[in-house]
Amino acid sequence: MSVTIFAKPEVQAFLQTLSGLDKPEGNPRVKQIIHRLMSDLFKAIDDLDITPDEYWTGIAWLNALGAAGQAGLISPGLGLDHYLDLRMDAEDEALGIQNDTPRTIEGPLYVAGAPVEQGHARLDDGRDTNGQLLRMHGTVYGSNGQPLPGASVEVWHCDTRGFYSHFDPTGEQAPFNMRRTIIADDTGQYSFHSILPKGYGVPPGSPTEQLLFALGRHGQRPAHIHFFVGADEHRKLTTQINIAGDPLVNDDFAYATRDGLVPEIVEHTDAAAIQAAGLDGPFAEITFDFHLTPLVAGQDNQLVERLRVAA
Ligand SMILES: [Fe+2]
């Protein structure tokens, strides 16, 4: 039998008590957020008549999710990372700030401390021989439309098995493989050589995948390359580009694909182009410029602080 008790005064008082709102100790912001989230959860249990069996299934799943370290994985899977981006877009729109290079989600696999190189870097160590050679380059522009010498381009991507260094379950990759910080040259240009990454998915059988399957979804991402781009007097841009032609380019479980972030790939097979690029064979070329936005009242109003791995 379905009952509804949420609106009862004793339930409302209980929510105040369990959120600590009846005492001065603790953190007011935490109390405010927990009160709201618990109220919404209590109401959902009432409205949907969530059974104890269903509830405890959820708790067991949360325990498994935490034990697997996958909270940062289900977060984009349930669209929360993209939702935070949409809110920042809306904030920018209200402030009249135009993002010529769209932001998109960071994901959970950044590692601070990658080697810093001037102007150009090679990202891979040459051991993943299954990947197509890649040359990517472009210019970092400032809010006045002028190039930004000295801008910092942090780049990271996975190998052809879909594994990132520092998170490689096979342990095969050296630290910072396919991760670099490139300082734009005196014309604001950056370039790097690497291999084209492949798409990847959430771990098979994982709590993240179990939930996505229960939703009738998949846990796969199209191939992509991550970036943080920053410069003095500008806001740090968090973004990714997708590798054009990947079949999942518009079907990303993490909802990171955005218009303007799928640059064209130009294939080069002629000897002159290969020699000019300084590469050993046919390669894919991506040209992509980054456009940064100004500080707001002297501040990066969208700088995100979160727990990140550092090595
Ligand atoms: Fe990624």
Instruction: Name the hetero compounds present.
Output: fe (ii) ion
What is the helix tally? 7
| CATH class categorisation of the largest domain | Mainly Beta
What is the annotated CATH architecture of the largest domain? Sandwich
CATH evolutionary superfamily of the largest domain: Aromatic compound dioxygenase
The rough form would be described as globular
Strand content: 15-25%
Uncertain regions spanning at least 5 consecutive residues: none
Overall mean pLDDT score? 97
Query: What is the β-strand count?
Result: 15
In N-to-C order, the SSE pattern is HHHHHEEEEEEEEHEEEEHEEE
What does this structure look like?
This protein has 311 residues and is of the alpha/beta class. It folds into two domains: 9-73, no CATH class; 74-310, Sandwich (Protocatechuate 3,4-Dioxygenase, subunit A). 27% of the residues lie in helices and 20% in strands. The protein is built from seven helices and 15 strands. The model has no long low-confidence stretch (mean pLDDT 97). Strands 3, 4, 7, 12, 13 and 14 form a six-stranded mixed β-sheet that branches. Strands 2-6-5-10-11 form a five-stranded mixed β-sheet, with no helix packed on it. Fe (ii) ion binds at residues 107, 109, 224, 226.
Provide tags for this entry:
single chain, alpha/beta, globular, 5-stranded mixed beta sheet, 6-stranded mixed beta sheet, 311 residues, Protocatechuate 3,4-Dioxygenase, subunit A, 2 domains, binds fe (ii) ion
